[in-house]
Specification:
Order of helices and strands: HHHHHHHHHHHH
Radius of gyration: 18 Å
Largest sheet: none
Helix content: 40-55%
Oligomer: single chain
Structural class: mainly alpha
Strand content: under 5%
Distance between the termini: 17 Å
Number of helices: 12
Amino acid sequence: MAKSLVSPVKEESIIEEIAPAYWEQACAELMKHDRIMKKLIPKYGSGFLVTRGDAFTTLARAIVGQQISVAAAQTVWGRVLIASKKKVNPKNILALTVEELRAAGLSGRKVEYIRDLADHFDSGRLHADQWKDMDDESVIKELSSIRGIGRWTAEMFLIFNMVRPNILPLDDVGLIKAISLNYFSGEPVSRHEAREVAANWAPWRTVATWYMWRSIDPIPVEH
């Protein structure tokens, strides 16, 4: 089941809060074509999706945050940050021993995952410099080749790191819950039903998803 990614550590994040270029157009079109969005967007209209962090850091945080609470993940991430001399990058992660990573609070499985991620970046097996020109599914396929990174994590990366406009993370429990509450009066929702609702959101499904999340938690989770 999908979990939240880790909130960023303030010391290493320089945040420039500028709305994506498509945000205003997306909101206008969503309000025009969807009755629920017409109500939600004005209610939470002052916010927008913010990107932060480099690709490796975003994915490393995703691995750290798997299957644990956001608070616990933040604690572990802080320890990894200290162990990495305040700079979590592929070379610094690979320079740490398994014991040092375990001492930071990572499980044996997560140590394997984060080292595999670091090796993918360090060896050049990933085409990170080409991702901006690749379509969504191609990026998802490449990211999913890394141990510990599945489709949900790849979709969160496309949303929060690359700010792609039309991502629909159907494995996200928050999105499914919000669709249930806003469109089905709280009744259980199948993936098929969620996809049918979201058909009305294209080509701005990322933006609609962001407002769905806001409808159940007005304070955005930082990814």
